[in-house]
Amino acid sequence: MSSFKTIAVFLVLLIFSTISQAQDPIRLISPWGEGSIAFPFLEGFYQYDESRFMNKIDVVGSCAEVTNIIKNTDEPTIAFSEALFLSKNNPCNILNEKYFVTTVGLASLNFCTINPDDDVAIKKFQRDVRVGHFNGDMFRIPIESILRNMSGKNSRAVPYRSTPDAIAAMKAGEVDFIVTSQNNMAENCFLTTGETNDDITYKVSDFYDGKFSNAFYTLAIVGANVNKEEIKKAFINSTDPDINNIYIDGRGRSYSPELIKKDREYQLKIINDYVNHLKNAER
Amino acid sequence: MIETIFAFFLGLLAGIVTGILPGVSILAAMAILYPVLLYFDTINAIILYVTLGACVNYFASVSGTFFGVVASPTAIPSMIEGHALFKKGDGDAAIMHAAIGSFVASMFALLLTVGLLEFLFVFYNLFNSRIKLIIFFIAIVFFILTADNKWWISLIFAGVGLFLGNIGFREGTMEEFMTFGITPLYSGLPLISVLLGLFVIPHIFLNLESSQKTVSFNPITFSGYIKNLKEMLSYKWIIFRSSLLGYITGFVPGMTYILGVSISYGLIKRKKQKENTYEKGDLHCLISTECANSAGALSVILPLLLIGIPITGSQTMIYSIAMNNGIDMTIQYFQSMYFNVIIAYTITSIICVFIAGKYVNWISIIKRINFDYIYIIIILILILIVFLIGSRTLQEWYYLSILAIFLPFGYALRKFDVTPAIYSFILADHIYYSLRSTIALF
Hints:
Helix content of chain A is 38%, strand content 21%. Chain A is α/β, with parallel strands linked by helices. In chain A, the strands form two sheets. Chain A has a six-stranded mixed β-sheet with strand order 7-6-8-5-9-10, sandwiched between helices. Chain A has a five-stranded mixed β-sheet with strand order 2-1-3-11-4, sandwiched between helices.
């Protein structure tokens, strides 16, 4: 009987200890819906550790809503974010030491066109051209800088509602080139700001050395009430193709595990340098 | 092959459910199905999408005719005419003419696509911002002139629609308009809340106020379809013109086929009004709008299938699956698989014509019920659907609040034709971007 009591007490203590050690699962938030780039990355978290991460992704109305939730939540929460939103007043700007967790990947700016011949395309690019783009100032400022250094005086950047809209305009002959961070969205990408992007023939840095010749913007994870090192470790492991099958480069983004493995201060510095470049370029 | 059959039947089932449920859009259905789609080959995902889209039209038309509700602004004219016919006791004629018109228009659009495959690049010009801007301008003028109001009242409605449609934060240009720091407003005003608050629910209130409490309804039969099919020959020019208009305007990104539907409907209605033969519940008007709708529903997919340009939210999901599977959506890819799509589309159209007829007969038991109760139940279902759609982005209370704000305005304006406001609201974002792009080009 006494041994039975001992076992019972042990079991009660074990259960109590397990419950007390259990932590709330971490909530996953995305500003974009199913099919967006955010999903495979966020899904990777709960595929990696089902006990630590919720097995669903909450899609919220806008990037401003992400910022609002991250700033006000009491729950452990992480969210997918495009790391560069200019201006302090921008409702999507959440990139600071308090919330920034890690970069997800680097997205270089790729210049693409309908013409399949890279040599013809680069020659044409050096004349007066019209370049369609998405993402507002985040893309406009670097594009205009590159055009000033590489193309004719009358070249211009033309904003569109989305990258597919810009591609449609290119098909209609309204713009000569488009800029996208996804290599395989347009027919032929021939020029890139990504130095390690070997799929693309020409590098902007081969033509001139300036602020934006290596421009990229970053995809990032932001979080509240979480252990950032734990999230970063989970992310590195969850995106390791040897562990699971997340197809990081499915959209042609240049993904840099080395950068993610660097510390947060280094990552933030890289991103903030780019923000400062953009701000200075505006002056 | 098994996956293809599964995708086909899943699309069929999803299309039926989406069409039957008032207020549920193709985008919402695709978002629910997306996790399943990820396991499909790209071609099967496309078959599911095409099947779903084709099927929704037939069943949404039944919901519009029977209950006076719509999920999409393109279905507004057919709902107005179909429901009026239904209340006159001609629901069977409305359903059969709409179904046959849709079927014929779908087949016409298919033949046009196959026949013009090598020449469809001509339509790429519709992607040009300046041309889009001109088309948008024509559309707004057309909405104003064909609405059942004095022109200046419609002009005010169109202005209000454009104003409301601009509220929000645009990630394309990183600019915000009239958000006052209220976070949910950054995502803009939700279409479903505005559509239901300003138009659909007030329209139901208008029906509640009428003295007619019951309706008579003749069942749909196979012989009825044959009889109506013969009758449809007399509408051949309306069918041809409307299908062509719907087909062409389906290519314009952002506008989809709203303009085609609205022009087809407006032209017939104007003509009949001039001849003093127009009365709400007009078969000519119904057929023209259904044909434009169905032809446009096919052509709206073509920019995605032919050149990999998704122009609606639901298409973005298909595009994403293709990208993840490493498929470049080019005209060569389309040529390699369009036969499967055509087969799926044709079979779906045939099946849906008949299943929709069966469904209509099944729900026709409602003719024994006082229609006021049905309207009240529909209003409650619509509110629930707004809640559910809002909850997809954790914004259920925001969606309901916007509905609550617009409802009194909609009620006060229920005797006016507010469609210029609804259509302008939808086009506002696209007009803004077309304008921005055009300015940047000069």
